[in-house]
Write a structure and sequence with these properties.
A hairpin with a 4-residue loop joins β7 and β8. 42% of the residues lie in helices and 22% in strands. It has eight helices and twelve strands. The longest helix is centred in the middle third of the chain and has 20 residues, at 110-129. It is an alpha/beta fold. The protein has two domains: 5-129, Rossmann fold, CATH 3.40.50.2300; 135-225, Arc Repressor Mutant, subunit A, CATH 1.10.10.10.
Length: 227
């Protein structure tokens, strides 16, 4: 099997060298870039399986890099995680809003970092191999898992990868109440730590895109899909 390809984008040379060294030591094929614009160029050239982005960078920050990559069909299903020393809610929400899958905070401990990378890759494989219907029709929505596409009537609705996975989970069992813990486990994975507001952000974005009447909040428990 070919090694997993990882692109690391950060403006601090010491961090780039540190991350590349630890990833290569684990058998990954790694390339780096030192700013957002070069990161996009390398992503298109290298076609990585996983992209690790610093948020605060010159020329183009990580959030804008992610936004541009997610608008390209070639990167709709690429795993993108953010590296940041900032723990403010708004930076984490911004990262998720543009289609980021996760974020890792600095300072970075090598063993924890590698563990998070492997967890992301396992989660991606699990989601893609999960046995579930490939085409779901609920109300006026059609959810096409093969094409990662949602249509409402004649309108094509653009969803980020995690938004799509969350919607797909909810519509597989309309009326079922999914607890927050169950959603975390099935969409993000039990071995990944994400912020407490992660689900709330994705539910809000889904409601904005597909309409606010489909996804119901069950106070103190979780969410369900109704039509």
């Amino acid at each position: 099997m070919n090694p997993v390809k990882i692109l690391v984008v950060d403006d601090e040379p010491d961090i780039l060298d540190f991350l590349k060294y630890n990833l290569v030591k684990e058998g990954f094929d790694v390339v780096t870039a030192s700013n957002g614009k070069d990161g996009i160029k390398e992503a298109k050239r290298f076609q990585p399986d996983l992209i690790i982005l610093d948020i605060m960078m010159p020329k183009m920050d990580g959030v804008e890099v992610c936004r541009q990559l997610r608008s390209d069909p070639d990167f709709e299903r690429t795993i993108i995680t953010f590296l940041t020393a900032r723990e403010e809610d708004y930076s984490q929400i911004a990262a998720l809003d543009v289609g980021g899958d996760d974020y890792i905070t600095k300072p970075i401990r090598p063993r924890v970092f590698i563990s998070r990378v492997r967890a992301l890759l396992r989660r991606y494989q699990r989601v893609n191999e999960e046995d579930a219907p490939n085409l779901l029709e609920v109300g006026d929505l059609i959810i096409d898992r093969d094409r990662v596409c949602v249509t409402k009537g004649e309108e094509v609705i653009e969803l980020a990868k995690k938004e799509f996975e969350l919607l797909h989970l909810l519509v597989t069992k309309p009326g079922k109440v999914f607890s927050r813990e169950e959603i975390f486990n099935k969409v993000w994975g039990t071995d990944v730590i994400v912020g407490n507001r992660t689900i709330d952000v994705h539910i809000r974005k889904l409601r904005e895109k597909i309409g606010g009447n489909y996804i119901k909040t069950i106070k103190g428990i979780g969410y369900k899909f109704e039509f």
